[in-house]
Amino acid sequence: MSKDFFTSCEICPRRCGANRRAGETGACRVGADPVLARAGLHAWEEPCLSGTRGSGTVFFSGCSLGCVYCQNARIAGGEVGHPVSPSRLADIFLELEAAGAHNVNLVTPTHFAPLLSEVIPLARSRGLTLPIVYNSGGYERVETLRALAGLIDVYLPDFKYADAALAARYSSAPDYPEVARAALAEMIAQQPTPVLDGDGLLQRGVIVRHLLLPGAYRNSHDVVKYLATLRHAVYISLMSQYTPMAGVSSRFPELSERVRDKDYRRLVAYAVRLGIERAYVQEGGAAEESFIPAFDLTGVLPKE
Length: 304
Ligand code: SF4
Prior knowledge:
Layout lengths: L34 E8 L4 H4 L4 E6 L12 H4 L5 E2 L2 H13 L5 E4 L5 H13 L6 E5 L5 H5 L7 E4 L6 H8 L4 H15 L4 E2 L5 E10 L5 H12 L6 E5 L8 H4 L9 H13 L5 E3 L23
Parallel strand pairs: 2-4, 4-5, 5-6, 6-8, 8-9, 9-10
Antiparallel strand pairs: 1-2, 1-3, 7-8
Helix pairs in contact: 3-4, 8-10
């Protein structure tokens, strides 16, 4: 009998030990059954994922990282969502393929990762052909990722912090820099060479995202400096879309601003100077909240 990872949960680096089968919750705030807030086509990922028809995003509720500036705080806190069975989750992947998605894009799946070893082969056995994208905050245990080897085609992690103090302040994770570096190394070991199809859509590989935060240019500078050492193995996506969310400014006044254009331009120029060529950058206006989809259970429940 295989191990039940949810009875004493150590799936992510928090290693809470919560018995999620028995209704306990850890830092990710959800139990053992996968809970989804939305599944649908999404046009706002990087062009090699969104293509012309959209990425097939599957938004999981709950989050093991819990950043104070989260743009999806209601689902990250597990406040919205509906539980689904592994079989229904596999069917959702197939429905996204039928709707024209270029890939199945699992958004914040970390705290349900062991289930993917069941669900992805099940979906494949039912005919799924799309690449599977693992889209996470980058705060992962290497052991958990190793169990997914051969199942994940594209890793899409954030690399949020090089600065441990910032990681502690905003994500209660002072070990984020070292944990994320080890996780990224494992992702690259599994997918060492980016592969695009004839339409420029990523079939295999690693894209690392970094979001510039207001007042945190030095952190971003150091992240880019590190990512430049991996530039031949990964695509790098530098994001300027930080949006101050209601309530954050009372505790973190520095997060009430948007990022300054000149800081973002400076960061991009620095990346270019370091020889980063495989990169995505954002044009002005990318910070509109309309890019955040409605978490209204679209695509989650089976059609009548
Ligand atoms: S997945 Fe959730 S319960 Fe498990 S260790 Fe991480 S935060 Fe804790």
